[in-house]
Amino acid sequence: MAISISKGDCFHCGLPNFEGDKYPVTILNQSHNMCCPGCQAVASSIVDNGLESYYEFRTEPAARGDSALDNTMSKLSVYDEPELQEDFVLESGNNKEIQLTVEGITCAACGWLIEKQLAKVVGVKQVSVNVGARRALISWDDEQIKLSQLLQQLKKIGYASLPFQADSHELSFQIEQKSYLKKLGLAGLMTMQVMMLAMGQYFDLFGSIDAETTRYFNWVSLVLTTPVVLYSGSVFYLSALKATLAKRINMDISITIAILSTYIAGIITVNQADAEVYFESICMFIFFLLISRFLEQRTRYRANLISSNMLKHIPLTAYKWVDGEIKGVLAKQLKVDDLVLVKAGEIIPVDGEVVEGQATVDESLLTGEFESVAKQQGELVYGGTLNQLGVITIKVTKTLKYAMVNQILRLQETAMTNKPKVALMADKFSEHFGAIVLAFTVLTYSYWFIQDSPHAFWIAISVLVATCPCALGLATPSALTCAMANLNKNGILLKRADALEQLSDITDIVFDKTGTLTYGEFSCGKMWFAKDAQRETLLSIASSLELRSEHPIASAFTHCEIEESHRHIDKFQVSIGNGISGKVDNALYKLGSANYVALSEQELIQHKIADATIIMTKNGQLSAAFWLVDKIKNDVADVLSQLANYKTIILSGDSEKNVSDVAQKLGIDASYSQCTPAMKLETIQRLQGEGKRVLMLGDGINDAPVLAASDVSLAVGNASDLAKNAADIILLNPQLESLVFILSMAKRVRRKIKQNMAWAIGYNVLVLPLAMAGFLTPWMAALGMSISSIIVVYNSTRLLKN
Description:
With 802 residues, this protein is of the alpha+beta class. It is 48% helix and 18% strand. It has six domains: 1-67, no CATH class; 83-164, Alpha-Beta Plaits; 171-308 and 413-482 and 773-791, no CATH class; 317-402, Distorted Sandwich (Calcium-transporting ATPase, cytoplasmic transduction domain A), CATH 2.70.150; 492-518 and 633-732, HAD superfamily/HAD-like (Rossmann fold, 3-Layer(aba) Sandwich); 523-629, Calcium-transporting ATPase, cytoplasmic domain N (3-Layer(aba) Sandwich), CATH 3.40.1110. The protein is built from 28 helices and 29 strands. It has a seven-stranded mixed beta sheet, sandwiched between helices. The chain has a six-stranded antiparallel beta sheet with strand order 9-8-10-16-11-14, with no helix packed on it. Strands 19-24-23-22-21-20 form a six-stranded antiparallel beta sheet. Helix 14 (421-450) packs antiparallel against helix 16 (470-489).
C-alpha cells in the first residue's frame, strides 16, 4: 500500500517543504508541491516517462533530488553568451554547431540513447555521437533552442557535458581511466578473498566444517562482496537507469538484473548453512566485465589519440606584428589579415599566406607525408605544421577555430553521423536482443521451476550473464574507430563513415585527368595567332584573364614571357568546365573550348587548330589558339596496375588528343574528352543506370557536380575548396597511391565487422542452449562473455596497423 505524505511536506521525498507551491508537478491529474528544483525535476521525469504509478505503490519516500539544480542550470546559461561561444561554436548557415565532451558514455548504447533523446528536441537539426571519443557533434537553430538548454537536456538524462577542448577532454579521459582502475582494483582484490573462502568450501579444504562456520564464511563473503556490488558495479547500474528512464533496453539492464538478483538472493539465504550463495560469482562477473570495459576504453583512447593529438600541436601563443613591433598574443585571438612572425623551429599557429620570407615546412601532421615542403611568398601554410627552416611572416587567412586542423577533426566527427548499413543493423539487433534475452531468461526460470529444480534461479542468472550482447555492441564501432584513426594517420580524411562500406562494392573508378592523373602544371607547348603583330597584346590579355581563374590550366600562362600581364578587366565570368570571358578595352574576349567560344569545327580545321587546348576569340572572331602540355604523375602508372579488378575511365574537359594520349600511356579502359560538367554528370548517371558502382576522383571546381553524384567520391590533395566540399573522402597529400590503401582498408573494415558480428552472434547462439540447460554456472558465464568482448576489441585493433 502506498505511503501517505503529510500535508506541507515534499510529495517526492517527504521532507518539510519550505517553498510552498514554488515547485509544483501534476501527478495522476493532481497538482503536488515539491521542496526543491531537484525533486521537481526527478518527479517530472517520472511523469514524462509514464511511470506515475510509482507514486501509487511506493512504500517509502524517494531520495531527495539535487537541491542545487537551479544553481546548476544557471551556471550552464553562461554558455549562451556570444563572447564565450566565439571560442567553440561554429556558424553553419542559419544553424550553430558545437562539439561537446560528454561524460558517462560507457558503450555504444549510450551514444544511441543520446542521439535518440536529443533528436526529439525542437530546434535540434543533427546529433552525432562518437562513442569512442566520447564526443557529441550537435547542430541546432539558436532561435528555437539555446546551447544552455541543450546542455540541460543532456544533464537530465544523466550525461554531464561541456564544450570540447583538447586539454579538458584529455583530463576527462584520465579521470575516467583512474575511476575504472579503482573499481577494477577493488573488484580484483575482493574477488581473490571471496574466491579463497568459496574454494575452501567447495573442495572441503578446511576439513569438515560445521554449520556455524559455514554461516560465518558466508557473512564474511557478503561483507567483502558488498563494496564490489555497490561501488565497482555502479558503472552498469547508472547505464541501465539512463536506458530505463528513456524507455529503452540496453545490455546493461540484463547485467544489472543479474548482479542485483544474485546479491539479494545471497543476502536472503546467507544464514542458511546449506544455502547456495554465489558471492564469488558476483565478484568475478563484475571483475571480468570491468576488465573488458577498461580494455575497450583503452582501445578507444588509443585510436582517437591520433586525431586528438592534432590539436595539441597548435601553440597557445603567437608573435603578431603591431605597428612595426612584435607582440606576444594568444593564438585564438588572431584575426583574419593579422600579420604573424614564425621563426625556424616554431609551430605555425594558424592558417595563413606567406607574405615575406621563405621556409621549409613539415606538413606530416596533416598529410602523413614526411617530406618537407618549400614555402614561398603567396603560398599557404597551415596551423599545427612545423617551420623547420627559415623565417616567414604570414597573413592570417582563417581564425583558429576555422583552421584546417580543426576542420579535419570536425569532419571526423561528422563522418560518424552516417553509419554503415551493417552498423545500423547491429544497433537495431542489439536493441531487440536485450528483450529477447529477458524473455529467454523468464522461460528458462519457468521451466526449471516447474521441474522443481533447486537451481532454477541460478540457471536463469547464467542465461542473463552469458548472453549479454556486449560483444555485439562493440562489433561495428570499434572497427570503424580504428579504421578511421589509421586513415587519418596516413593523411586520408573521411567525411562519412558509410563511404568505407560503399567502397567495397565499387566496380568502376572514374578519374578526372588534369591535377588527378597529371600534375596540372601546364605550360604552353605551342601557340597560334590570327595576326602575329598582336601576339604580345593577345598573350597579355589571355594571361590577365587566366590569372583570375582557379583552374590548373591558368598556371600555364604564368610561365610565358609577357611584358604586361595585368590589365583592367570588366564583367569577368567563369563558365565552369567550359571557359572564361571578360571585357578588356571595351572588347569581349573569350577563352575556352570550341563550343564555348562558338566556333564551327570547319573553321578550326581550316586554320589547323582543331586539336588546340584553348581557343581565344575577340568579339566573336578567332584570335588565338594555345596547345598546353602536362606531365603524368610519377606514381599513377604503378597505382593503376594495382587496380586491375576495376574498370578505369577518364572523364575530362581536355581535348581528345591529350586525353587519348594519357589513356593510352596508362592503359585506361575508356576515356571521354571535351566534357562539360553536365556531360560528366550525364556519364556518371548513365554508368549508375547500368548498375555500376562508381568511385570518382577529381580536384577542380568543374568536378564538384560529379563528385557529389558518384556513389563515392574522392578529392586529391591539391583539390579546390568546392571539390573538397563535394567529396566523401579527401586526400590531404597529393599522392594517388593512397587510393590503393583506401580500397584495401575498406575491404579490411568490412571483413573485420563481419568477423566481429559472426563471432558475437555465434557465441550467443552457442552459449544460450548451454546456459539454459544448466551447464554453466554464473561465474563461467561471466568469464565467457568477457572473453567474447575482448576478442572483438582485439580483432578491431588490428586495423590500426597498415
